[in-house]
């Protein structure tokens, strides 16, 4: 069909089709049963920028820290003192962890294209899966499910034991446990929980995180590290963040770490060195079975 034919076809929509789509042109313009499509985050005007109903230049700039601003962007509300404190704490906890594969990928990308800082950052973020960036989102889902069962009257320890056993019986790992470096304890996780207790924000999700730790170790019969992902999720949920918002903290934090690596890469390049060492470490065997 030609463009003109397409326009004619839409313009000539029958009354039946219009009614089916909820009124003339609604479907084509993003309208539906929930009303008009809207965004509540921000709008730029010729003389100002409005963010979450606040004047960016006249109110937010010079008053909020970036952490407070991130909370406002993410939730629509300015944080309480505890929310700000722990959002800062969690961002610091997960921002940097050495020469991880995500940082290596970013450095090698920048070495290959020194003008593509954004591409190098993207390469690093795309490499931040559950093995590298952690399973905070999976932990949040697990804790939310467990909390719902506790709210229905079940005991936290029993819920944790049952859910952990079900995951293990299915051949799956319980998210938030185990670490290749930090054994038998992850110092970041310990510090988060220590401060949550000290500031009185530890709630039902932190209690469930500890119950899962006991259940997992009990099933294994030996210690297993609770890694930083579990307390990130537990503390955020106890502070009122939604489970969907939890993964945003590690992503934002790791972006800061990536930018540090890329700034260093520009001054002290090692991207091609790492690529060369990788070739040296891998033997080439023609005709080898896959």
Give a structural overview.
The protein is mostly helical and 290 residues long. The chain has a domain of 199 residues: Cytochrome p450-Terp, domain 2, CATH 1.10.230.10. The protein contains 14 helices and 3 strands. A 3-stranded antiparallel beta sheet has the order 1-2-3. Helix 6 packs across helix 14, helix 8 crosses helix 12 and helix 9 crosses helix 11. The N terminus is likely disordered.
Compressed to H and E, one letter per element, the order equals HHEEEHHHHHHHHHHHH
In the CATH scheme, the class of the domain at 81-279 would be Mainly Alpha
Calculate the mean pLDDT score and round it.
89
> Based on DSSP secondary structure assignment, what is the total number of beta strands?
3
DSSP helical segment count: 14
Beta-strand residue percentage: under 5%
Helix content: 55-70%
Distance between the termini: 48 Å
Point out poorly predicted stretches.
1-29
Radius of gyration: 25 Å
The CATH superfamily title of the domain at 81-279: Cytochrome P450-Terp, domain 2
Give me the side-by-side strand order of the main sheet: 1-2-3
CATH topology of the domain at 81-279: Cytochrome p450-Terp, domain 2
- What can be said about the biggest beta sheet? 3 strands, antiparallel
Structural class, from secondary structure content? mainly alpha
CATH-defined architecture of the domain at 81-279? Orthogonal Bundle
């Amino acid at each position: 069909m030609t463009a003109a034919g397409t326009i004619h076809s839409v313009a000539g929509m029958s009354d039946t089709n219009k009614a089916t789509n909820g009124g003339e042109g609604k479907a084509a313009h993003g309208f539906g049963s929930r009303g008009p499509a809207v965004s509540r985050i921000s709008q730029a005007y010729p003389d100002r920028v409005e963010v979450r109903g606040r004047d960016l230049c006249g109110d937010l700039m010079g008053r909020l820290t970036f952490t407070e601003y991130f909370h406002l962007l993410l939730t629509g509300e300015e944080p309480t003192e505890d929310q700000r404190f722990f959002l800062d704490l969690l961002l610091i906890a997960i921002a940097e962890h050495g020469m991880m594969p995500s940082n290596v990928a970013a450095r090698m990308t920048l070495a290959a294209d020194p003008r593509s800082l954004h591409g190098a950052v993207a390469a690093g973020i795309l490499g931040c899966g559950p093995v590298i960036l952690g399973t905070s989102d999976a932990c949040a889902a697990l804790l939310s499910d467990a909390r719902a069962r506790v709210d229905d009257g079940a005991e936290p320890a029993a819920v944790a034991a049952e859910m952990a056993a079900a995951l293990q019986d299915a051949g799956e790992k319980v998210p938030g446990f185990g670490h290749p470096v930090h054994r038998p304890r992850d110092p970041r996780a310990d510090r988060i929980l220590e401060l949550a207790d000290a500031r009185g924000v530890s709630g039902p999700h932190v209690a469930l995180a500890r119950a899962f730790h006991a259940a997992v170790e009990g099933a294994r019969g030996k210690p297993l590290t609770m890694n930083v992902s579990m307390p990130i999720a537990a503390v955020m949920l106890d502070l009122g963040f939604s489970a969907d918002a939890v993964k945003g903290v590690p992503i934002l934090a790791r972006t800061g770490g990536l930018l540090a690596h890329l700034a260093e890469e520009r001054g002290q390049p090692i991207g091609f060195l790492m690529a060369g060492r990788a070739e040296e470490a891998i033997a080439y065997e023609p005709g080898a079975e896959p």
